[in-house]
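Re: the 436-residue chain
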Amino acid sequence: MKPSVKALLVTTCMTLSGVTFAAQTVTIATVNNSDMIRMQKLSKTFESEHPDIKLNWVVLEENVLRQRLTTDIATQGGQFDVLTIGMYEAALWGAKGWLEPMKDLPANYDLEDVFPSVRDGLSVKGALYALPFYAESSITYYRTDLFKDAGLTMPEHPTWTQIGEFAAKLTDKSKEQYGLCLRGKAGWGENMALITTLANGYGARWFDEKWQPEFNGPEWKDALNFYVDNMKKSGPPGASSNGFNENLALFNSGKCAIWVDASVAGSFVTDKTQSKVADHVGFTFAPHEKTEKGASWLYSWSLGIPTSSKAKDAAKVFTTWATSKEYSQLVAKTDGIANVPPGTRTSTYSDEYMKAAPFAKVTLESLKVADPKDPSAKPVPYVGIQLVTIPEFQAIGTQVGKFFSSALTGGSTVEKALADSQTFTEREMKRAGYPK
């Protein structure tokens, strides 16, 4: 009989350093979304199993988290022992030697159970640099009751044009009912994640084969005009301040008819304890327009250990526990199987889970077709669907996000936002020495 995960982890705890830990503190920097808040709550189980490890949590808003972690790891500040990062950081920071490779995992961790696309996205030259907590694509959420009342039918693979038409018909601002909720908060991982997939659907790309930006092309113009026009016509007020959490709150309160965002929200919009519309949510694939290539993103919130950590062994025990099958079983037991962190493991998608999670089929199919190496209708020199995996993208994507957010608020026009984005990106890429 194989030893339990718990036994393996306890053994790992004892043997990684050769002795028991002398009350080591592991400082974890994480994002303020519901899955991570649940992990913080359930980590009391970990601490009871590992009395020599104390967990210290730093929970931050997404943009702030990224800024803090980038600064700390680039300066080797050593403030954090566990970093909540995505595929972008895992690939770039792993290549720079800033992250500990995730090797010698307990046998019961079953790394082969993790989807290959997720493992690949967190690896550099075959070395894994972060363990996936959950993975997501982007999908379309919609109110089945509002669609039925209006005599509308959501296609399995809607176009953005259809989404705009549905949204206009389902908007009643006098009732605070908004047809379309999309991210507007500026940031490379905020509004630009959504807008880039929208632009991909129109056939756009960030760069041509010679690393020249293409914001002056018709595809970006069509995509951004659609986004701005429909958000002004059918979106909620103050949309430029809305990211994932804000739009989730709007949808759950019954104020959004259609919301396109991360598939991980499926368990929250169907949770009757936090969603007023839990019984009236439909799920389908992210919209496309001229192409389905790159219309739905691929992302994983993962746990990595910086080389600057002073508690690496204890940090590894925690990251292994938090991303293990044992943790998923703990979530299923305490919060229900539909709330298990999705998108990372084949074993998650059991018949029981598929039956309990009405969003699971769309999520799984979306994850299967998402290809960061082929994100656009045209050839590209980069890897990434909703982002570009080069060090310069973090600054460029955030600034372009600010230009686009300004167009949404009326502080700028679409034409000026695109022209400013083109000029800024050209200058930054030239300064960085592209094409290389």
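The chain has 17 helices and eleven strands.
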